[in-house]
Amino acid sequence: MILETERAAVCAYARRMVGDGLVVGTSGNVSVRAGDLVAVTPTGVAYSSLNPADVPVVDLGGQVVDGSLKPTSELPMHLSVYWDVRDPDREPVTAVVHTHSPHATAVSTLVREVPPIHYILATIGPSVRVARYATYGTPELASAVLEALEGRRGCLMANHGTLTYGDGLEAAYHRAQQLEWACRVWLLAQSAGRPALLPPPEVANVVDRLRGYGQT
After folding, report:
1. What average pLDDT score do residues 160-165 get?
2. Considering only CA atoms, which of 169, 108, 117 is closest in space to residue 144?
3. Where is the Class II aldolase/adducin N-terminal domain (predicted)?
């Protein structure tokens, strides 16, 4: 079985999305790229019962090269990220996570850009845009997401959910979690009053500081 490790990781993170409350049912999807192949969640399959053999492998043109199940309907969006995204710090793009996390989805209906409520948003970029609405699974949605991702590592999708990417599923998933957390904080704060927001120069400062964050 090709991409066995990657397919196992897709299963593990798909189940984790459910457990962490970032999706319900069969919504949301994840993928991992290895060379010119991509392991991606199948469409309409409960993640609790997913096993590596169920995970289809496609080429960068979207053709299934291994597996008997159809890939997620959001495959065009995943592939567009692998083809076209250029990370601002040249981080390899080897994993994509798409969630329907509730707080981030709620925020996507209220604003065109996530308010800078906390510096953790700088892990995505100098701001987090909301992609214009388009029907799920369409080239129009993939195009809208790419526009919102310019110079960013993630975005919200209007009335839909989130997309984040990174070098490996751990990095992409961590960004999805932090994005959902920040959106929850903003919703809580604005429900109680008028939250103070970070000024753009401070967000830019944190973006720069995060380039050297962590262990070398």
Report:
1. 98
2. 108
3. 8-187
